[in-house]
Glycolate oxidase iron-sulfur subunit
Amino acid sequence: MDPELIGDCVHCGFCLPTCPTYALWGEEMDSPRGRIHLMQQHVEGTPVTPEMAGHFDACLGCMACVTACPSGVRYDRLIELTRVEVERTHVREPRERAVREIVFSLFPYPRRLRLLRPTMWLAGRMAPFLARVHPSLGAMAALAPPVEHRQRLPRLVRARGGRRAVVGMLTGCVQGEFFPQVNAATARVLALEGCDVLVPAGQGCCGALSVHAGRAEQARRLARRTVRAFRRAGVETVVVNAAGCGSTMKEYAELLGADPGFKVMDLSEFLAELGPVARRHPLPLTVAYHDACHLAHAQGVRAQPRELLRGIPELELREIPESAICCGSAGTYNILQPEAARDLGDRKAGAVGSTGAELLVSANPGCTMQIASAMRRAGKEIRVAHTAEVLDASLRGVSL
């Protein structure tokens, strides 16, 4: 924990109404200001107690407080450093430790996730039974999405028409294995807008899930592998279609202590900067766009996805109430903190349902699974898609 960063907080309270856990419980120690107070106590010599660790674990790391803070407090950096300290010094109960080992031995590894694909249809039915074994296992099963057939991307997707740019593309772990159609749509959109798309071998999880959970060494190991893959490909720009991944990769220099050698951009950020050339066909849809926290708060990318969606003829974009409040996904939060995540998911589902939209658009796989699951619980199922899928349908003139 960094005393200088802690000292930047003037305890003004502007963060309180933006914090999801403070909104749920109204407890000072479950607000950013309260957690910073606990960090200060630890710096001054108080050991990490189970109660203290519980308050830190309850933080989603959504970074809404960073957006709201008038003093520029680096709460994002503070909570990451704090979680490293918690993982280093706090001894968890055996059942909790076992669940965390399952999660972090599985999700950052695409080949292991691939083994789950044939059983995904059974996950929802098993959720009540698994919840009795452990709430986190039940939550994991309930979130499981229906998975399409695996789509293998070639190592190079050629630009259509004149080449305007050459980019690398992150395929990721959860995105690549549970939402392969999103990666395929991303590559097509980039190609249709005049980009050669390189999909390097050897990439996998970028390390984001581990960073957010304080597993620093695992995060660095995964990040170094990702950097090697894109350096070998020789790309100057890497395009990312998952908000949490993009947020972490933009901080690689801080994580690894060295410049990775390439620029990282979210898909919508890159396309907005590149400018459209391909023709958009009409999509007569009402769409609710969900701001993923690690896109809106951590990366500051809000206008670009809306700009791209509004550029599609006949598409009506509707805003979601309380858009700045996290849906409860937050990396592995909806697995490790299932009760709080469920409450936030239900709150977000109500907000999405109030728009009356036909389609929910999100730029993060965790958010997509979280909100879809909450909508099912509420009996208000809604079609979900990634921004890339909507653009792909419009560019190719096909229905979504």
